[in-house]
Specification:
4-stranded mixed sheet; Nucleotidyltransferase, domain 5; alpha+beta
Length: 118
């Protein structure tokens, strides 16, 4: 196998391990993060009901400016604002197999600073 396919397989395995343990409820939804090469998105998910409670992305947003880390910080702040409007104070963090550094960490720190607990 090539190095790229090994990295992708390892990420999928990490994602499966995380999702085997992490599950969201109505009181404490799952904060799922997706970081692509160009955009960042985050959603609050109630796994018991199978519903998305809130969703923020940089796709088509004029407010999300700067480099990808700054965009991730913007998404973290916006998802925390949405969580406040639906009266959610605590979430479980699902990093989707990504390592907890860089953009994922920036999003998580911005959400924490805006008032989310996880």
């Amino acid at each position: 196998m090539t190095n790229l396919s090994d990295k992708l397989r390892n990420r999928v395995l990490r994602k499966r391990r995380i999702r085997a343990v992490v599950s969201g409820t109505a009181e404490r939804p799952r904060l799922s993060v997706h970081v692509s090469n160009r955009h960042v998105s985050a959603q609050l998910i109630d796994d018991e009901a199978g519903k998305t409670l809130g969703y923020v992305t940089t796709v088509g947003q004029k407010d999300a400016k700067g480099n990808m880390t700054e965009r991730a910080e913007w998404v973290g702040g916006e998802i925390a604002k949405q969580a406040k409007t639906i009266k959610v104070k605590a979430v479980v963090f699902d990093r989707s197999g990504k390592l907890y550094h860089g953009r994922v960490k920036a999003l998580a720190d911005a959400a924490r600073n805006a008032g989310l607990e996880f």
